[in-house]
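Lab channel / #folding
Pinned by the channel admin:
"Please post every new chain as: sequence first, then the structure tokens as a reply. Keep commentary short and put observations after the output so the thread stays searchable."

First post following the new format, from NK:
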Amino acid sequence: MHHKMTLRSFFLALALVLLLVSAAFAGKNTVHFFVVPSSVSAQKIPALNDFLVKTAGGFTAARSHGRGPGSTDRKIKLDNWSYTVAADKDLSGEIMDYLKTQCGLPGVFMLVYEADRPGL
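Reply from TO:
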């Protein structure tokens, strides 16, 4: 009988821990999406990546392609980088300042939205 009570207590404690962990990980994140154009020197990208790791804890980046507004060139450009950065708070000001001062971008379009971070 003692063994059954211990096992039942163990599973109850395990369920409680999983519930608490899920609640801790559930919540809201702020997602930042922006494109770094090919006009930014390739030598500045590693420093930008380091900044995003230090500031937000990480990022996702991928080569993006397309043509600029008013472009008559049919050639698709593959030199832009699309970044997605999720953080527990809005970092758009810090990221924009970095892109302007360190990457020399006079203006940046950034999509910022709140997203749910589901629990386990």
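NK: The domain at 27-117 is CATH 3.30.70.120 (Alpha-Beta Plaits).
TO: also worth noting, The beta strands are 27-36, 60-66, 77-87, 110-117.
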